[in-house]
Amino acid sequence: MKSGEGEPSVGQVMVFRSKDFLKWADGVMEGILKKSPIGGGIDFLTKDFFNWATRNSIYPLHFGIMCCALEMAVASAPRFDAQRFGVIYRSTPRQCDVLLVTGPVTKKFQPGVRRLYDQMPGPKWVIAMGECAISGGPFYDSYSVVPGVDQFIPVDIYIPGCPARPEALIDGFIKLQKLIKDNKRGLLTGK
Amino acid sequence: MGPQHPMTHGLWNLRIKVDGETIVDAEPEMGYLHRGIEKLCENRTYTQIIPLADRLCYGSSLTWSHLYCLTVEDLMGLEVPERAEYIRVAAIEMQRIASHLMWLAAYAADLGTLAGFIYTMRDREVFIDLLQALSGSRLTYNFPRIGGVAHDVPPNFERDSLRACTYMEKKLDEYDQLFEGSKVFMMRNEGVGILKKELAMNLGVTGPPLRASGVNYDLRKDQPYSVYPELDFQAISMPDADCYARYKVRMDEMRESCKIIRQAVQKMPKGKWRIVAPRNGPVGTGIGRVEDPRGEGMMYVVGNGTPKPYRLKIRSPIFVTVSAAKQMLVGYKVADVVAIMGGLDMCIGEADR
Fold this sequence. Notes:
The complex is a heterodimer of chains A (191) and B (353).
Chain A: H1 18-35, H2 37-55, H3 67-75, E1 98-101, E2 105-106, H4 110-119, E3 125-129, H5 130-135, E4 145-146, E5 157-159, H6 166-182
Parallel strand pairs in A: 1-3, 3-5
Antiparallel strand pairs in A: 2-4
Helix pairs in contact in A: 1-2, 2-6, 3-6
Chain B: E1 13-19, E2 22-29, H1 37-41, H2 49-54, H3 61-76, H4 82-110, H5 114-135, E3 144-145, E4 148-149, H6 157-180, H7 183-189, H8 197-203, H9 208-212, H10 219-222, H11 243-267, E5 283-292, E6 295-304, E7 311-315, H12 317-321, H13 325-329, H14 337-342, H15 348-352
Antiparallel strand pairs in B: 1-2, 3-4, 5-6, 6-7
């Protein structure tokens, strides 16, 4: 059946195309889970577990812009070993929770960063690492640098330093874990 | 491929045209990290540019601030104390080792030898610690000054440097076994990305890629600056012109750098390490050329009698080297792109400026 003809009756279910069936099923599931007390109950039971899993498996995007990218690499190397905190770098934004902006974003690359942020599935967080990402840093008066990534994407954690030391980056990840822990939300109801 | 791609260490874009799996055309696209440093320098005083020059290339920031200081000293006609020159040379060679190790870490991780990443990053910390003791910072040192260096060497610097060199030479033999014993690493390196001698010279390629093409051209030997003529070392070159030759040149360069550090810290004379530089630059021009870990870096400064330079031109090695991408890539498979472009040691900070 064509979409947009209103709710189908039970007999019509059999002639659904798969797309329409998914849409219909989503509506039913939403009614049962998200709006009724059942969803709230499931959230109440699973909230702590999912939150624990989320904050202990932070996957940042493997995406280096400037100096801080080297410190990012060093932080995952033997001496600092950020993998102790569940920080594993992934190469595609589709698998990531955290966008780590490690340098000045130029006007040419601003749409690219925005697109990377949009491609990431939620829940997602942004860390601005280093002075360049926070405010433009030494290039604050440059004609081609956006002074601060928070002008076009929301930033959760700011790590100062030029470049930020690996210890500071690890401290930022721990702060992010605390942030995730403090803002517990159920997956279904969002409460 | 790019700008966000695990193969590109930095922000740049490589457009490749393929016929099946074979590359028929390639075009690198730069400019994602253009910060307008040359323009910014016109609004800074001579001293304020040193930190900006540090941030040109994040892999080897000390060479760039050194190059800037060399250029301005040429403009002002300053004679640097000998002790400062030796401190600079020791620091630059440490930076060269750290930069090559960073390249090796990224290259090894790209080519599937993740153990190589772990080992090289571990040993890089040794030299980063030395530079941190020297200048107080891990990555952007802000250490050379116009007319010398910021401060004297810390206590026990000579002992620590000699220990680090001995340690590094032992580790380099270990790397040889690790990488050359790895069949995957060798298969992806040997005979890949051949850049002929004449082509490399015509395209203006400098640094390890040029020396790997069989041209023995090293500015430290051919146009000596600082105290390099008094030190005993060799410029490395290999005739093979493939990725393996580039790897080998860098490995041997690290051995030579250990030799230079050892001589520099032992020969270091006593005395002043800094002289006072005038605030205003004279009317005139200054030029400086150094052998960066990635190739030949050049700066050209025009002074007009004010505390700020009139113009600063930066010649970046990678911006020129990457123009050889097409000649190196055409005819190879898509899977070889990582090895070929990784072997150039891309550093976008200085290429885009």
